[in-house]
Design goal:
This protein is mainly alpha-helical and 212 residues long. It is built from eight helices and two strands. Helix 7 packs antiparallel against helix 8 (139-182). The model is unreliable at 1-22 and 185-192 (pLDDT under 50).
Length: 212
């Protein structure tokens, strides 16, 4: 009985190993990498076609290598700004939107600073010459300049927050799409049961083979 158990265990693990072993299709694998580097969302249909020729192990390997993490892009977008993290992540749309929005915010802030600085320059000249500075006449440029500075800062902050949140959202959508195309849920697993017979001892039994 013990001998039969050992033989069954050996056959079980051997079948499981052979069922999981796959021939590595290097041409299809490298082609899939090439398509992925060109953009998953832009080439999703082509990538799905190439992925059909990949073995399950190759699909798992591709997913592990190319899945995205939003942590580093988040840090770059939040602390450096200008969509740098999004560009690094491959999210060109968010990166370009954030870059344009941040530059627009900088332009508003710069314009407001010019208004305020022009008034302060007049003030310093008047004080240096011993003259009285009329604040009422120059109040409008100060208010306009201050408003532009605040507006520019708010616009830039808004795009920083947007790009920071988008870092994790894009990573999630990318990984879900990649997993869907590669079918990494291992739906191709199967179980096979076959009868065996030992003619010398006239013993009968079953062997289960699991394809993982």
């Amino acid at each position: 009985m013990k001998k039969n158990f050992i033989c069954f265990s050996f056959l079980f693990f051997f079948c499981a190993f052979m069922g999981g072993a796959q021939e590595f299709n290097s041409s299809a694998f490298f082609k899939a990498e090439e398509v992925l580097k060109g953009g998953l969302f832009e080439n999703e249909t082509e990538f799905a076609t190439v992925a059909e020729n990949l073995a399950p192990l190759e699909k798992e390997l591709l997913y592990v290598i190319y899945k995205k993490d939003g942590t580093l892009p988040f840090c770059l977008n939040f602390f450096a700004g200008y969509g740098i993290g999004s560009f690094l992540q491959g999210d060109k749309k968010t990166g370009l939107t954030t870059l344009v929005g941040s530059l627009a915010g900088d332009a508003l802030t710069l314009s407001g600073s010019i208004f305020v600085n022009s008034v302060m320059t007049k003030y310093n000249i008047a004080v240096g010459a011993g003259q009285t500075f009329e604040w009422e006449e120059n109040l409008a440029p100060v208010l306009v300049g201050g408003g532009l500075v605040l507006c520019g800062a708010a616009v830039k902050a808004g795009f920083i927050i947007y790009s920071s949140i988008q870092s994790f959202r894009y990573a999630g959508e990318y990984n879900d799409t990649l997993k869907k195309v590669l079918s990494t849920n291992r739906a191709d697993s199967s179980v096979s049961i076959a009868p065996v017979m030992d003619l010398s001892s006239k013993e009968y039994g079953l062997v289960a083979c699991f394809k993982l």
